[in-house]
Amino acid sequence: MNKICLLLLGVVLFFCTACFESGKLEDLDKKIVSLKQDLSMANEAVAEYEKNRPQSLTVLMDTVRKNEGYYQVLERLGVERNDRGAIVLALQDSVELSNLRVGQKFHVAKDANGATQVFRFSPNPSVVHLLFKNPTTKQFEYKLVEKPLTVKQSIFSGHIVQGGTLHGTLISVGIPARMSGVVAGVLQCKIPFSSVQPGDRFRIMLEESFYKDSIWISGKVLYAEFDGRVVGHHEAFLYNDPDPKSTYNAHYTENGEALIFDGLRYPLDRLHITSPFGTRTHPVSGVRKMHYGIDYGSPKGSPVYAVAKGKVVVSGYDQYSGNKIAIRHVDNSVSYYMHLSSRGVGVGAQVTGGQVIGRVGSTGRSTGPHLHLGFKNAKGQWINPKSKTMIATPKLQGERMARLTQQIAGIRKNLEKLESTEPQTIEGSTVKVKQQVVSK
Ligand SMILES: [Zn+2]
């Protein structure tokens, strides 16, 4: 502001000198009036700018520690109680809040009054979840930033050596345990591993994404093949539904048969866990409480399926669970479905696994539409429903089956393409790798 004043004063002085020299005093008066106006306008502009200039924010960072949830980290960062709740609410549709890992970083940016204006969470180097507080509505607005990844496909092929296992062989060549586990899991359905012989051949096709070419972000098993002297020839294909959270995303045989031993039917078509089983800290109140089930966020009205066949033992309403249904299964375990908007079955009804028994709602003590799924074992103890294997269907049908057939053709084409590339050998292993970048 001082600079502007000095400048204007300089201009005034210049004109004064000029005017005295020419002796036109009336003109000078006019000039002074106009310059005074300019000066007052400049002052107003400066004041306006000072009032509205972007606030300088202070950025703080903290990391997730063992046994911590969002609440603890946000509290340590000094985020105000209401904002803690608002942040969790604003994120829960986009981020699976129960998947926090030790070491993950939270950033918050606060204004001069200590109020949180920006929240940043980056679960891995390629993804950033951002929340900005809208200055008008005072609500957090969500923005996702995804950085480009390099996607590679690879085939690992080899044979079982004397005393070796498939899982052990895959781990030894550096395939992440999560994916080796998937391979073993799907093949196990068809292959009794005790009948696996040395010399039996396998072929696995993976698709992995990397950040900056080398930081592993994620991977999936597109294909697994096993050809055994005793167990015979088996193939497994990954089915990809248009919805990445669809419960149908799993491995199937070429005929669409699910590769899973025996599983419960998922209670919904889409899984998004908003609150897991176990002790949780309420994001707003900070109170620690046991949660005897899993909450799945889902739009109101979505169909809810019986997880297995059984008899309806509860179909009613109470102020906490809202509309709830309980089904006793043949092994005497009981599944519970709560907060429903509507119930489609009454006490005593016999239901089959996958039958629609009601619709997702937000009745009872609930902050938004979700399904609370509880599960009691035969002894009447609450168990984590996640400990049960769940599948969407034993066999794909209709449109999904047609899509699988199409995807299998694509996988076979890619296999052929990959097979034509030069193999790399892995030191100390009989396994060969063929790899290519499919997108960057
Ligand atoms: Zn719940």
TrEMBL record:
Residues 25-52 form a coiled coil. InterPro entries: Cell_wall_metabolism_enzyme (IPR050570), Dup_hybrid_motif (IPR011055), M23ase_b-sheet_dom (IPR016047). The keyword Repeat does not apply. Keywords: Coiled coil, Hydrolase, Signal. Residues 289-385 form the M23ase beta-sheet core domain. PANTHER family: L-ALA--D-GLU ENDOPEPTIDASE, PEPTIDASE-RELATED. This is Murein DD-endopeptidase MepM/ murein hydrolase activator NlpD. It comes from Hallerella succinigenes. The lineage of its organism: Bacteria, Pseudomonadati, Fibrobacterota, Fibrobacteria, Fibrobacterales.
